[in-house]
Amino acid sequence: MNDTRRIDGRTNDELRPVTIERGWSDQAEGSALISYGRTKVLCTASFTNGVPRWMSGKGKGWVTAEYSMLPRSTNSRMDRESVKGKVGGRTHEISRLVGRSLRAVVDMKALGENTIVLDCDVLQADGGTRTAAITGAYVALADALAWGREKKFIAQKAQPLTDSVSAVSVGIINGVPMLDLAYTEDVRADTDMNVVVTGRGKFVEVQGTAEAAPFDRSELDTLLDLALGGAITLTDFQNRALEG
Amino acid sequence: MNDTRRIDGRTNDELRPVTIERGWSDQAEGSALISYGRTKVLCTASFTNGVPRWMSGKGKGWVTAEYSMLPRSTNSRMDRESVKGKVGGRTHEISRLVGRSLRAVVDMKALGENTIVLDCDVLQADGGTRTAAITGAYVALADALAWGREKKFIAQKAQPLTDSVSAVSVGIINGVPMLDLAYTEDVRADTDMNVVVTGRGKFVEVQGTAEAAPFDRSELDTLLDLALGGAITLTDFQNRALEG
Amino acid sequence: MNDTRRIDGRTNDELRPVTIERGWSDQAEGSALISYGRTKVLCTASFTNGVPRWMSGKGKGWVTAEYSMLPRSTNSRMDRESVKGKVGGRTHEISRLVGRSLRAVVDMKALGENTIVLDCDVLQADGGTRTAAITGAYVALADALAWGREKKFIAQKAQPLTDSVSAVSVGIINGVPMLDLAYTEDVRADTDMNVVVTGRGKFVEVQGTAEAAPFDRSELDTLLDLALGGAITLTDFQNRALEG
Amino acid sequence: MNDTRRIDGRTNDELRPVTIERGWSDQAEGSALISYGRTKVLCTASFTNGVPRWMSGKGKGWVTAEYSMLPRSTNSRMDRESVKGKVGGRTHEISRLVGRSLRAVVDMKALGENTIVLDCDVLQADGGTRTAAITGAYVALADALAWGREKKFIAQKAQPLTDSVSAVSVGIINGVPMLDLAYTEDVRADTDMNVVVTGRGKFVEVQGTAEAAPFDRSELDTLLDLALGGAITLTDFQNRALEG
Amino acid sequence: MNDTRRIDGRTNDELRPVTIERGWSDQAEGSALISYGRTKVLCTASFTNGVPRWMSGKGKGWVTAEYSMLPRSTNSRMDRESVKGKVGGRTHEISRLVGRSLRAVVDMKALGENTIVLDCDVLQADGGTRTAAITGAYVALADALAWGREKKFIAQKAQPLTDSVSAVSVGIINGVPMLDLAYTEDVRADTDMNVVVTGRGKFVEVQGTAEAAPFDRSELDTLLDLALGGAITLTDFQNRALEG
Amino acid sequence: MNDTRRIDGRTNDELRPVTIERGWSDQAEGSALISYGRTKVLCTASFTNGVPRWMSGKGKGWVTAEYSMLPRSTNSRMDRESVKGKVGGRTHEISRLVGRSLRAVVDMKALGENTIVLDCDVLQADGGTRTAAITGAYVALADALAWGREKKFIAQKAQPLTDSVSAVSVGIINGVPMLDLAYTEDVRADTDMNVVVTGRGKFVEVQGTAEAAPFDRSELDTLLDLALGGAITLTDFQNRALEG
């Protein structure tokens, strides 16, 4: 790795400033306003007693997620998907990623026949919105589960959370692997990877993409090292928010 | 009027606490995060040099608005309109109201061939979201116009703003007219009226609806008095935010 | 007010010729083809025993409305909303207005678990289509209620209609308030207001809009006077149609 | 054939009463309100100078059609296709049939670069709506062409109409071939055929369908005889309307 | 008729080479990959025990069909209807035709409360895709019925198939009637007719269309003769495929 | 690893039988019908001279892809996305993956202002459809590029292809890593990974997902080894198909 600083002065293995404002919403059963630098995502968890009809009677719960960007969260305004009348491919893809990531740390039997919907709405976007969404959604989820237990929708002895989960992006820019890309870095990256990791350091998702230049095995190894390092810090932020 | 206090201790002619966080967004040309009590609306103004093709060549600008609610801004989660694949009637109706209200204080000739889109996204809803959206959108609009002038898209001598504009709801609950209804008041109202007023005290919109009980001329007069009173206070908040 | 006649020779407080052809449809439980001058709206009322599932078991009925314009009801052809694949904002807004207006004079308990859908299809448009729709829909509604009683879906002693309802537009053109604007007047109006009034002279809806020039309190008062006057005449037309 | 009269007293080769109210619309360039018994269809022709971009520069015109039913044109109310967000298969199929049928009697070169849209909206349905639509649309089309010539959009010597066109349904009920089926007959028919015929007696469309019982060659021959007979009468009605 | 050979060397009453690959799919209860010359259609029959709720309890089954073209089945690529967000008129029309044609040879009482969906996907298109779809779908249907009997969803003595069914196109090109038009012939045809015929030689559908030139009774007769001749050969192909 | 054979007798590092039928379509500029065991995907490449308007004038080309499944490609019939009126999340996600994978081996400058659309339609599905689609689409792409060169839309010296590309799935079942999962294996996998690799052995995409059980670094390493091994064989199949 070269030793030049990044555009915002960070080292290559440094996260942007992270803040988690737990309980931002007065309405939702769990919520967090998370920021990774200028990226801000409002995550809410909606707890419903019961499951969709097709799942009913199996003694298991369901966790799903929806991701969306406000039209002017970005540098130039995007058309609303509601106005276009359809959800775009990128939105679909990220919603599915967030849902799978959270389900990976939930024991659906322990959840019981309850449904949790995680809404991740990007209020401001500067790269890494999907990873911030996952990290913030975990905090909202944890609070919604606590709410469900308090309301006795979840059995007292049940432990629906099997681990915590966070996510971060990594990428290779001009041959240099870096952690937590801001938007200006992201657009210049040869390879871009989103990594979802549990609190115990296991992988939930590894999504690496090389539009500009295919990457080899050793580059992949370096990226995974960076991501695992970032995940330790993010897990720490989550734990402090949930203790606060 | 009776003299009992309201559920939140306000008098009948009292607004909820109002805050306007101007410049909330780093991305938009103008923005404001406005709150009327627990109701919070993020308003952004997107300035584009040029107008839609069908308006081109007439030397006039265009101002339009889109209103939307986050799925869990409300007490129970609503489905996203993007997922349902269509914009609902209420959303359409409010988007149109916000756009008309702002256009009422813009001189389109002075704006020149520029377009401003106002996005009003309700982050938390507790009644009065459409009126908060109008009041906040005015602040975002004013900043976007200042930006356009600075960038020389608007002529130096042009005065696109002809007045300011704010909005507030009024209603009759158990026969008592009240200002700025919170959600729990709104659902119990016999008559509900949204009033949009300029800084000089003229009406832009008067939208009164009586599903539960038709209202007579004197009730209408009382409601208009309350609304005009509220508008004076709101105009003051706007002016202070824009001076800040 | 100035004393010059209007483009079609009317005085400022004069309605266009109104006709109501009751029972136009052989199929619907109630129907009326109403005209306000060249504006023609076919209103049908469809009576169904039962209510949507979400309302079931509460002993109350439901009244709703849909408004639409034929593609060539207007001077230049509009695309069909069915072909565009979505209902436009204006259509949504008017459908909701018509529904609310009619519900304001129906006692849902007295209606019992029955549903009435009012379809208002504009066959020819020359201004005031939404107000004609409301006035005509009342006639169709009254006949559908009579049909429901005859078929014993409504209890013999029940009085679902609490009042009658009609609507008319008023506006200010070149500073002059006028009643029942034709299309050529409507497009030149500084302020345009639709007023829905019960047979007893109470307001159900007051929707005033000032895109061109905000209006003051005394202008508003004059407009309301004109509307109340027009409503008396319209109520008379409705009563005669229903007696005929 | 048996000699018993039909439910409405007609003989098997008799049309229902036909009326054509030419020029019903004040707005369209051509229009006709046609009735076949209780079936009523409002046909308008919208003339536009110019053609869609993909046809431009070829010196040829375009004629197209859209068919639709009002929601309560039928015995029980249908949902609106605009509300459902898509045009149904039957509507599509009939719109295409009407368009093809009218194009069959138009010389597109003689029409020049002009577009005519025929809107056929069923106000009341009692069987045979598509055939009434074609017969009525021809009258609207003829008037729109006359309008185009008067406005000099069509060359003075050009003869865009090569023939007239009308349509009628025929069917076999309990083994008996019959002309112009009313709805109660149509639902009982073994075979149902719509036949579009020019004024000179040639076929434009023959669409025979046998859901209940396949038909043989001699039955087909009898049906075609009935249809050709009906077409002569319908052509006569069209000619009289256009002379009137 | 003239005696010149066609572009591909066929005589006017000659079909293109027909192949039927029965049981192409490992997944469906019945399937056939059929080709009429270069036209290739994959037909699958999906058997479900039970019927849609609105048909339930009547002791009758349901057969329906969906037709679709792959985007590059044609000479230039078409947009996918899924991406456009709606099914086009032509697709709707053909799906309905295929469904009606197959239902004409099924005794719904004998089928019992079972549903069969026929999917006809055009892999390569060179004219006559809808007729090939019908002919191939019959083979898939026959196998799905055999499967249903084997699984005891259909009573052992029941005979759901009342006949076989096949389809072929005929048309008039430069005044010459021809059988089974390839695409290059189809686009030049004055009249184009699709004829659906049972194995016993009765008509199920006759759909003749004359955009370019209306046709007379004797031309119609010749076309029907050609179609009946082609149907005999197609029935033979079906029988051999089902025996194989 | 345990040494028991898989359900179909393969070893853990063994691909299913692969066949590539190059030039399956008579219509497309490039095509391949590829099978991985019972999974069959028809891949076509449509070459268009020119690029979408927003890319025009930059001297660069564009490659995109659409993936879809026939409704009865699977064990139980799925509804068509065209009928549902929207493209599902999974379809969107895979279409984007296929497009990115192919773009990774195309030099857009060398392609010049030409567009290639890859359509991958799954005719039969038994696991691994997205990976088969990528491997087959490469063959179709190579032929379309050769066609473009022959037609002189691509410069003679230009080398648009920078490498070849193939894809394969790997997964962990009961703790055992395996190559190229069939459907019955896929549904039982704890971790499922799709890996896209160039002919030179570099990664284009690594997409690993752990819904059932998070995976550690050494498991990830084993999966990548299996995938790289499979890619060598697949590259060989591609080369032989293109030489054939």
UniProtKB/TrEMBL annotation, chains A, B, C, D, E, F:
It catalyses: tRNA(n+1) + phosphate = tRNA(n) + a ribonucleoside 5'-diphosphate. Its EC number is 2.7.7.56. CDD domains: RNase_PH_bact. Keywords: Nucleotidyltransferase, RNA-binding, rRNA processing, Transferase, tRNA processing, tRNA-binding. Residues 14-144, 164-228 form the Exoribonuclease phosphorolytic domain. It holds the Pfam family RNase_PH_C. GO terms for biological process: rRNA 3'-end processing; rRNA catabolic process; tRNA processing. Phosphate binds at residues 90, 128-130. GO terms for molecular function: 3'-5'-RNA exonuclease activity; tRNA binding; tRNA nucleotidyltransferase activity. NCBIfam families: RNasePH. Belongs to the RNase PH family. Homohexameric ring arranged as a trimer of dimers. PANTHER family: EXOSOME COMPLEX COMPONENT, EXOSOME COMPLEX COMPONENT RRP41. Phosphorolytic 3'-5' exoribonuclease that plays an important role in tRNA 3'-end maturation. Removes nucleotide residues following the 3'-CCA terminus of tRNAs; can also add nucleotides to the ends of RNA molecules by using nucleoside diphosphates as substrates, but this may not be physiologically important. Probably plays a role in initiation of 16S rRNA degradation (leading to ribosome degradation) during starvation. This is Ribonuclease PH. It comes from Cryobacterium psychrophilum. The gene is rph.
